[in-house]
Design brief:
Layout: H1 3-15, E1 29-35, H2 54-62, E2 64-70, H3 76-85, H4 89-92, E3 98-99, H5 111-130, H6 134-140, E4 144-149, E5 163-164, H7 189-200, E6 205-210, H8 222-228, H9 235-260, E7 267-273, H10 297-300, E8 301-307, E9 315-317, E10 322-323, H11 326-334, H12 351-356, E11 360-365, E12 368-369, H13 372-375, E13 376-382, E14 386-391, E15 402-405, H14 421-435
Parallel strand pairs: 1-6, 1-7, 2-9, 2-10, 3-12, 4-5, 4-6
Antiparallel strand pairs: 2-8, 7-8, 11-13, 13-14, 14-15
Helix pairs in contact: 8-9
Protein backbone atom coordinates (compact mmCIF):
# COMPACT_ATOMS: atom_id res chain seq x y z
CA UNK A 1 0.00 0.00 0.00
CA UNK A 2 1.49 3.37 -0.97
CA UNK A 3 1.76 6.49 1.17
CA UNK A 4 -1.11 8.29 -0.59
CA UNK A 5 -3.58 5.50 0.12
CA UNK A 6 -2.36 5.34 3.72
CA UNK A 7 -2.91 9.07 4.15
CA UNK A 8 -6.39 8.81 2.69
CA UNK A 9 -7.11 5.88 4.95
CA UNK A 10 -6.06 7.56 8.16
CA UNK A 11 -8.04 10.65 7.22
CA UNK A 12 -11.12 8.48 6.84
CA UNK A 13 -10.51 6.79 10.16
CA UNK A 14 -10.09 10.08 12.00
CA UNK A 15 -13.00 11.71 10.25
CA UNK A 16 -15.46 8.88 10.83
CA UNK A 17 -15.38 7.80 14.46
CA UNK A 18 -15.62 4.03 14.90
CA UNK A 19 -16.03 3.16 11.21
CA UNK A 20 -17.00 -0.45 10.65
CA UNK A 21 -15.00 -3.17 8.93
CA UNK A 22 -16.82 -2.72 5.60
CA UNK A 23 -15.30 0.78 5.49
CA UNK A 24 -11.88 -0.40 6.66
CA UNK A 25 -9.34 1.70 4.74
CA UNK A 26 -6.02 0.34 6.06
CA UNK A 27 -4.55 -2.41 8.19
CA UNK A 28 -1.31 -1.12 9.71
CA UNK A 29 0.87 -3.36 11.80
CA UNK A 30 0.67 -2.43 15.49
CA UNK A 31 3.53 -2.54 18.02
CA UNK A 32 2.53 -1.63 21.58
CA UNK A 33 5.55 -0.69 23.71
CA UNK A 34 4.81 -0.86 27.45
CA UNK A 35 7.36 0.33 29.97
CA UNK A 36 7.17 -1.40 33.35
CA UNK A 37 7.70 0.81 36.45
CA UNK A 38 8.97 4.14 35.09
CA UNK A 39 7.71 7.55 36.20
CA UNK A 40 6.73 10.26 33.75
CA UNK A 41 9.77 12.61 34.12
CA UNK A 42 12.28 9.79 33.59
CA UNK A 43 13.07 10.48 29.93
CA UNK A 44 15.63 12.77 28.38
CA UNK A 45 13.00 14.38 26.12
CA UNK A 46 11.20 15.41 29.32
CA UNK A 47 14.47 16.92 30.51
CA UNK A 48 15.59 14.45 33.14
CA UNK A 49 19.03 15.58 34.20
CA UNK A 50 20.74 12.22 33.73
CA UNK A 51 18.54 9.46 32.27
CA UNK A 52 19.15 9.08 28.55
CA UNK A 53 16.36 7.69 26.36
CA UNK A 54 17.35 8.68 22.80
CA UNK A 55 15.16 6.15 21.00
CA UNK A 56 12.01 6.93 22.96
CA UNK A 57 12.87 10.60 22.41
CA UNK A 58 12.92 9.84 18.68
CA UNK A 59 9.55 8.12 18.92
CA UNK A 60 8.16 11.13 20.75
CA UNK A 61 9.49 13.54 18.15
CA UNK A 62 8.19 11.56 15.19
CA UNK A 63 4.59 11.05 16.32
CA UNK A 64 1.74 12.40 18.39
CA UNK A 65 3.03 12.63 21.97
CA UNK A 66 0.57 13.53 24.71
CA UNK A 67 2.51 14.72 27.74
CA UNK A 68 -0.46 14.65 30.12
CA UNK A 69 -1.19 10.97 29.82
CA UNK A 70 -2.39 8.76 32.65
CA UNK A 71 -2.60 5.07 33.33
CA UNK A 72 -5.79 3.72 34.93
CA UNK A 73 -4.04 2.40 38.07
CA UNK A 74 -0.57 2.65 39.66
CA UNK A 75 -0.08 -1.12 39.57
CA UNK A 76 0.81 -3.35 36.65
CA UNK A 77 -1.99 -5.91 36.46
CA UNK A 78 -4.99 -3.56 36.52
CA UNK A 79 -3.17 -1.11 34.25
CA UNK A 80 -2.30 -3.78 31.69
CA UNK A 81 -5.80 -5.24 31.74
CA UNK A 82 -7.16 -1.77 30.97
CA UNK A 83 -4.86 -1.46 27.97
CA UNK A 84 -6.00 -4.83 26.64
CA UNK A 85 -9.74 -4.33 27.19
CA UNK A 86 -10.33 -0.58 27.00
CA UNK A 87 -12.08 -0.75 30.38
CA UNK A 88 -11.35 0.73 33.79
CA UNK A 89 -10.28 -1.65 36.61
CA UNK A 90 -13.68 -1.54 38.35
CA UNK A 91 -15.16 -2.78 35.06
CA UNK A 92 -12.70 -5.55 34.10
CA UNK A 93 -12.27 -6.62 37.77
CA UNK A 94 -8.53 -7.40 37.62
CA UNK A 95 -8.09 -4.69 40.23
CA UNK A 96 -4.91 -5.92 41.99
CA UNK A 97 -2.05 -8.30 41.41
CA UNK A 98 -3.01 -11.22 43.64
CA UNK A 99 -6.39 -12.40 44.93
CA UNK A 100 -6.72 -12.48 48.70
CA UNK A 101 -6.37 -15.84 50.38
CA UNK A 102 -4.94 -17.38 53.54
CA UNK A 103 -1.47 -18.63 52.55
CA UNK A 104 -1.64 -21.17 55.36
CA UNK A 105 2.11 -21.23 55.83
CA UNK A 106 2.77 -21.52 52.09
CA UNK A 107 5.94 -19.81 50.91
CA UNK A 108 5.05 -16.66 48.97
CA UNK A 109 5.35 -17.22 45.21
CA UNK A 110 6.25 -20.87 45.73
CA UNK A 111 4.56 -23.75 43.91
CA UNK A 112 1.84 -24.35 46.54
CA UNK A 113 1.22 -20.61 46.90
CA UNK A 114 0.80 -20.24 43.14
CA UNK A 115 -1.57 -23.21 43.02
CA UNK A 116 -3.83 -21.69 45.68
CA UNK A 117 -3.60 -18.30 43.98
CA UNK A 118 -4.79 -19.86 40.73
CA UNK A 119 -7.92 -21.22 42.41
CA UNK A 120 -8.82 -17.79 43.77
CA UNK A 121 -7.86 -16.09 40.54
CA UNK A 122 -9.92 -18.23 38.18
CA UNK A 123 -13.03 -16.06 38.22
CA UNK A 124 -10.99 -12.96 37.36
CA UNK A 125 -9.24 -14.66 34.43
CA UNK A 126 -12.55 -16.12 33.25
CA UNK A 127 -14.01 -12.63 33.33
CA UNK A 128 -11.19 -11.24 31.17
CA UNK A 129 -11.68 -14.08 28.70
CA UNK A 130 -15.32 -13.11 28.27
CA UNK A 131 -14.39 -9.53 27.33
CA UNK A 132 -13.41 -8.34 23.87
CA UNK A 133 -9.73 -7.40 23.86
CA UNK A 134 -7.70 -5.52 21.24
CA UNK A 135 -6.27 -8.84 20.05
CA UNK A 136 -9.74 -10.44 19.84
CA UNK A 137 -11.11 -7.70 17.63
CA UNK A 138 -7.99 -7.46 15.48
CA UNK A 139 -8.18 -11.22 14.90
CA UNK A 140 -11.68 -10.81 13.49
CA UNK A 141 -10.18 -8.39 10.97
CA UNK A 142 -7.48 -10.83 9.88
CA UNK A 143 -4.61 -9.89 12.19
CA UNK A 144 -2.21 -12.24 13.92
CA UNK A 145 -0.95 -11.18 17.34
CA UNK A 146 1.93 -11.94 19.68
CA UNK A 147 2.06 -11.56 23.46
CA UNK A 148 5.46 -11.03 25.08
CA UNK A 149 6.50 -9.83 28.53
CA UNK A 150 4.04 -9.11 31.33
CA UNK A 151 0.68 -10.89 31.12
CA UNK A 152 -1.30 -11.68 34.27
CA UNK A 153 -4.41 -13.30 32.86
CA UNK A 154 -3.29 -16.92 32.53
CA UNK A 155 -2.39 -18.30 29.11
CA UNK A 156 -1.77 -15.76 26.36
CA UNK A 157 -4.84 -17.01 24.48
CA UNK A 158 -7.08 -15.58 27.23
CA UNK A 159 -6.20 -12.16 25.82
CA UNK A 160 -7.04 -13.24 22.28
CA UNK A 161 -3.41 -13.50 21.15
CA UNK A 162 -2.75 -16.02 18.39
CA UNK A 163 0.81 -16.56 19.63
CA UNK A 164 2.56 -15.81 22.89
CA UNK A 165 5.27 -16.55 25.42
CA UNK A 166 3.24 -16.76 28.64
CA UNK A 167 1.85 -20.20 29.56
CA UNK A 168 0.23 -19.11 32.83
CA UNK A 169 0.59 -22.57 34.40
CA UNK A 170 1.02 -22.14 38.19
CA UNK A 171 2.76 -25.51 38.46
CA UNK A 172 5.51 -24.02 36.28
CA UNK A 173 5.68 -20.63 37.97
CA UNK A 174 2.90 -18.96 36.02
CA UNK A 175 1.77 -15.72 37.66
CA UNK A 176 2.59 -12.52 35.78
CA UNK A 177 4.34 -13.49 32.59
CA UNK A 178 6.59 -16.52 33.29
CA UNK A 179 8.51 -17.31 30.07
CA UNK A 180 7.40 -14.00 28.61
CA UNK A 181 9.53 -12.08 31.10
CA UNK A 182 12.64 -13.10 29.17
CA UNK A 183 11.79 -10.77 26.29
CA UNK A 184 14.07 -7.76 26.10
CA UNK A 185 16.38 -9.00 28.82
CA UNK A 186 17.33 -11.98 26.66
CA UNK A 187 16.89 -10.52 23.22
CA UNK A 188 14.02 -9.94 20.81
CA UNK A 189 14.27 -12.91 18.47
CA UNK A 190 10.78 -14.14 19.35
CA UNK A 191 9.34 -10.87 18.07
CA UNK A 192 11.58 -10.74 14.99
CA UNK A 193 10.58 -14.28 13.99
CA UNK A 194 6.89 -13.51 14.47
CA UNK A 195 7.04 -10.33 12.41
CA UNK A 196 9.00 -12.05 9.63
CA UNK A 197 6.45 -14.84 9.42
CA UNK A 198 3.52 -12.42 9.35
CA UNK A 199 5.17 -10.19 6.78
CA UNK A 200 6.07 -13.08 4.49
CA UNK A 201 2.42 -14.19 4.51
CA UNK A 202 1.22 -10.60 3.95
CA UNK A 203 -0.74 -10.70 7.22
CA UNK A 204 -1.04 -7.60 9.42
CA UNK A 205 0.31 -8.13 12.92
CA UNK A 206 -0.06 -6.85 16.49
CA UNK A 207 2.82 -7.12 18.97
CA UNK A 208 2.32 -6.72 22.73
CA UNK A 209 5.80 -5.81 24.02
CA UNK A 210 5.59 -5.50 27.82
CA UNK A 211 9.07 -6.48 29.02
CA UNK A 212 10.25 -6.73 32.61
CA UNK A 213 12.07 -3.42 32.03
CA UNK A 214 12.99 -1.22 33.81
CA UNK A 215 11.26 -3.32 36.48
CA UNK A 216 13.29 -4.77 39.34
CA UNK A 217 15.51 -6.71 39.64
CA UNK A 218 17.65 -3.85 38.45
CA UNK A 219 20.42 -5.80 36.75
CA UNK A 220 21.54 -3.64 33.82
CA UNK A 221 24.49 -4.45 31.59
CA UNK A 222 27.75 -3.42 33.25
CA UNK A 223 28.39 -0.75 30.62
CA UNK A 224 25.15 1.04 31.47
CA UNK A 225 25.61 0.65 35.21
CA UNK A 226 29.12 2.08 35.00
CA UNK A 227 27.82 4.98 32.94
CA UNK A 228 25.39 6.09 35.64
CA UNK A 229 27.34 5.28 38.83
CA UNK A 230 29.30 8.58 38.78
CA UNK A 231 26.09 10.54 38.17
CA UNK A 232 23.68 9.00 40.69
CA UNK A 233 23.45 9.66 44.44
CA UNK A 234 23.57 5.94 45.23
CA UNK A 235 24.23 2.67 43.37
CA UNK A 236 20.53 1.75 43.70
CA UNK A 237 19.53 4.88 41.79
CA UNK A 238 22.26 4.31 39.20
CA UNK A 239 20.95 0.82 38.53
CA UNK A 240 17.40 2.10 38.03
CA UNK A 241 18.54 4.85 35.67
CA UNK A 242 20.53 2.29 33.71
CA UNK A 243 17.47 0.04 33.44
CA UNK A 244 15.51 2.91 31.89
CA UNK A 245 18.15 3.24 29.19
CA UNK A 246 18.27 -0.54 28.68
CA UNK A 247 14.53 -0.52 27.96
CA UNK A 248 15.08 2.41 25.60
CA UNK A 249 17.70 0.44 23.69
CA UNK A 250 15.29 -2.46 23.13
CA UNK A 251 12.61 -0.09 21.84
CA UNK A 252 15.16 1.27 19.40
CA UNK A 253 16.02 -2.24 18.24
CA UNK A 254 12.38 -2.85 17.35
CA UNK A 255 12.15 0.50 15.57
CA UNK A 256 15.31 -0.27 13.60
CA UNK A 257 14.04 -3.72 12.63
CA UNK A 258 10.85 -2.23 11.24
CA UNK A 259 12.90 0.34 9.33
CA UNK A 260 15.19 -2.35 7.91
CA UNK A 261 12.17 -4.31 6.69
CA UNK A 262 10.80 -1.13 5.09
CA UNK A 263 7.63 -1.39 7.17
CA UNK A 264 7.74 1.96 8.95
CA UNK A 265 5.10 3.52 6.70
CA UNK A 266 2.72 0.69 7.49
CA UNK A 267 3.41 0.28 11.21
CA UNK A 268 1.83 2.12 14.13
CA UNK A 269 3.97 2.28 17.27
CA UNK A 270 2.14 3.03 20.53
CA UNK A 271 4.05 3.85 23.73
CA UNK A 272 2.86 3.93 27.35
CA UNK A 273 3.99 2.86 30.83
CA UNK A 274 1.97 0.71 33.20
CA UNK A 275 2.79 2.70 36.37
CA UNK A 276 5.41 4.94 37.90
CA UNK A 277 8.48 4.32 40.02
CA UNK A 278 10.68 6.45 42.27
CA UNK A 279 13.78 4.53 43.24
CA UNK A 280 14.45 4.30 46.97
CA UNK A 281 18.04 5.55 47.17
CA UNK A 282 19.00 3.24 50.01
CA UNK A 283 17.19 0.01 49.17
CA UNK A 284 18.01 -1.61 45.82
CA UNK A 285 15.01 -2.78 43.77
CA UNK A 286 12.52 -0.98 46.01
CA UNK A 287 10.27 1.95 45.21
CA UNK A 288 9.94 5.05 47.33
CA UNK A 289 6.61 6.44 48.59
CA UNK A 290 4.30 8.45 46.33
CA UNK A 291 5.10 6.42 43.22
CA UNK A 292 4.06 2.84 42.48
CA UNK A 293 0.74 1.93 44.15
CA UNK A 294 0.10 5.58 45.07
CA UNK A 295 -2.52 7.96 43.60
CA UNK A 296 0.00 10.70 42.85
CA UNK A 297 1.27 11.61 39.40
CA UNK A 298 4.58 9.84 39.97
CA UNK A 299 2.48 6.67 40.18
CA UNK A 300 -0.06 7.18 37.40
CA UNK A 301 1.17 9.78 34.91
CA UNK A 302 2.85 8.68 31.66
CA UNK A 303 3.61 10.14 28.25
CA UNK A 304 1.53 8.37 25.59
CA UNK A 305 2.78 8.26 22.00
CA UNK A 306 1.43 7.24 18.61
CA UNK A 307 3.94 7.13 15.76
CA UNK A 308 3.06 6.14 12.21
CA UNK A 309 5.65 7.54 9.81
CA UNK A 310 4.18 9.50 6.95
CA UNK A 311 0.67 9.28 8.36
CA UNK A 312 0.46 10.79 11.84
CA UNK A 313 1.73 14.34 11.89
CA UNK A 314 4.33 14.86 14.64
CA UNK A 315 2.96 16.90 17.53
CA UNK A 316 4.03 17.44 21.13
CA UNK A 317 0.64 17.96 22.79
CA UNK A 318 1.10 19.66 26.16
CA UNK A 319 -2.55 20.58 26.77
CA UNK A 320 -4.77 17.57 26.08
CA UNK A 321 -5.55 14.80 28.54
CA UNK A 322 -5.16 11.18 27.56
CA UNK A 323 -5.45 7.84 29.30
CA UNK A 324 -4.19 4.36 28.62
CA UNK A 325 -7.90 3.57 28.30
CA UNK A 326 -7.70 5.30 24.89
CA UNK A 327 -5.19 2.86 23.44
CA UNK A 328 -7.73 0.17 22.53
CA UNK A 329 -10.19 2.61 20.98
CA UNK A 330 -7.51 4.46 19.02
CA UNK A 331 -5.91 1.30 17.61
CA UNK A 332 -9.25 -0.16 16.61
CA UNK A 333 -10.48 3.05 14.98
CA UNK A 334 -7.23 3.38 13.05
CA UNK A 335 -7.71 -0.16 11.76
CA UNK A 336 -11.29 0.54 10.74
CA UNK A 337 -12.71 -1.68 13.47
CA UNK A 338 -15.59 -0.53 15.63
CA UNK A 339 -14.70 -0.60 19.35
CA UNK A 340 -17.18 -2.30 21.63
CA UNK A 341 -19.88 -0.15 23.17
CA UNK A 342 -18.36 -0.78 26.60
CA UNK A 343 -14.91 0.59 25.78
CA UNK A 344 -14.31 3.85 27.60
CA UNK A 345 -11.64 5.58 25.54
CA UNK A 346 -11.56 8.03 22.66
CA UNK A 347 -9.60 8.00 19.42
CA UNK A 348 -6.89 10.47 20.38
CA UNK A 349 -5.95 11.03 16.73
CA UNK A 350 -9.24 12.88 16.48
CA UNK A 351 -8.35 16.44 17.50
CA UNK A 352 -11.97 17.33 18.18
CA UNK A 353 -12.35 14.38 20.55
CA UNK A 354 -9.19 15.39 22.41
CA UNK A 355 -10.36 18.98 22.69
CA UNK A 356 -13.78 17.96 23.98
CA UNK A 357 -12.43 15.74 26.77
CA UNK A 358 -12.88 17.29 30.20
CA UNK A 359 -11.34 14.71 32.50
CA UNK A 360 -9.61 11.37 32.89
CA UNK A 361 -9.85 9.00 35.83
CA UNK A 362 -7.81 6.46 37.77
CA UNK A 363 -8.30 3.99 40.62
CA UNK A 364 -6.13 2.51 43.36
CA UNK A 365 -6.79 -0.83 45.05
CA UNK A 366 -5.07 -3.18 47.44
CA UNK A 367 -2.23 -5.19 45.93
CA UNK A 368 -3.83 -8.36 47.31
CA UNK A 369 -7.44 -7.83 46.34
CA UNK A 370 -10.89 -9.23 46.93
CA UNK A 371 -13.73 -7.17 45.45
CA UNK A 372 -14.07 -3.63 44.12
CA UNK A 373 -16.03 -2.56 47.19
CA UNK A 374 -13.77 -4.18 49.78
CA UNK A 375 -10.40 -3.45 48.16
CA UNK A 376 -10.80 0.15 46.94
CA UNK A 377 -8.29 2.68 48.29
CA UNK A 378 -8.64 5.81 46.11
CA UNK A 379 -10.52 7.23 43.14
CA UNK A 380 -8.97 10.04 41.11
CA UNK A 381 -10.14 12.65 38.62
CA UNK A 382 -7.77 14.85 36.62
CA UNK A 383 -9.11 17.90 34.80
CA UNK A 384 -5.97 20.10 34.50
CA UNK A 385 -4.95 22.06 36.29
CA UNK A 386 -6.93 20.36 39.04
CA UNK A 387 -6.59 16.85 40.35
CA UNK A 388 -8.82 15.42 43.07
CA UNK A 389 -8.06 12.29 45.10
CA UNK A 390 -10.89 10.78 47.14
CA UNK A 391 -9.94 8.09 49.65
CA UNK A 392 -12.47 5.36 50.32
CA UNK A 393 -13.75 5.63 53.94
CA UNK A 394 -13.49 1.87 54.43
CA UNK A 395 -9.77 2.12 53.75
CA UNK A 396 -9.07 5.27 55.77
CA UNK A 397 -12.01 7.19 57.27
CA UNK A 398 -9.75 9.99 58.52
CA UNK A 399 -8.16 10.90 55.21
CA UNK A 400 -10.01 13.78 53.60
CA UNK A 401 -10.04 14.88 49.96
CA UNK A 402 -6.79 15.94 48.33
CA UNK A 403 -6.89 18.67 45.69
CA UNK A 404 -3.81 19.72 43.75
CA UNK A 405 -3.10 22.33 41.10
CA UNK A 406 -0.82 20.41 38.77
CA UNK A 407 0.26 23.50 36.86
CA UNK A 408 1.80 25.15 39.91
CA UNK A 409 2.42 22.04 42.03
CA UNK A 410 3.26 19.14 39.68
CA UNK A 411 4.60 16.93 42.47
CA UNK A 412 1.49 17.43 44.64
CA UNK A 413 2.83 18.76 47.91
CA UNK A 414 0.20 21.43 48.64
CA UNK A 415 -3.31 20.13 49.30
CA UNK A 416 -5.75 22.90 48.40
CA UNK A 417 -8.98 21.11 49.31
CA UNK A 418 -9.76 23.43 52.23
CA UNK A 419 -8.95 26.53 50.19
CA UNK A 420 -11.22 25.50 47.29
CA UNK A 421 -14.22 23.57 48.64
CA UNK A 422 -16.31 24.52 45.60
CA UNK A 423 -13.83 22.75 43.28
CA UNK A 424 -13.83 19.68 45.54
CA UNK A 425 -17.63 19.59 45.39
CA UNK A 426 -17.74 19.97 41.61
CA UNK A 427 -15.07 17.37 40.87
CA UNK A 428 -16.51 14.95 43.45
CA UNK A 429 -19.85 15.08 41.66
CA UNK A 430 -18.15 14.50 38.31
CA UNK A 431 -16.21 11.57 39.77
CA UNK A 432 -19.38 10.01 41.18
CA UNK A 433 -21.19 10.41 37.86
CA UNK A 434 -18.37 8.60 36.06
CA UNK A 435 -18.16 5.88 38.72
CA UNK A 436 -21.88 5.11 38.57
CA UNK A 437 -22.39 5.23 34.81
Amino acid sequence: MNKISLLVGIALVIGVAGCNKSQQPVQPNIILLISDDQSWPHYSFLEHEHIQTPRIDQLAAEGLTIINGYTTAPLCRPALASMATGLYPHQHKAIGNDPVFDPGGKEAYGKDWLAQRAVNNKSVVDGIQELSTIADLLAEAGYVSLQTGKWWEGHYSVGGFSQGMTHGDPSRGGRHGDKGLEIGRKGLDVIYDFMDEAHSSETPFFVWYAPFLPHAPHTPPDSLRDKYLPLAPTPAVANYWAMCEWFDITCGQLMDYIDEKELSENTLFVYVTDNGWIQDPDRPNRYAPRSKRAPYDMGIRTPIMYRWKGVIEPEMDKTSLSSSIDIATTILDVCGIEPTAEMQGINVLDRDARAAREAVFAEVYAHDFNTVDSSLYHRIIITRPWKLILTDPAYNPDRGPELYNLDTDPYEWENQAEAHPEIVTRLSAQLEEWWNQ
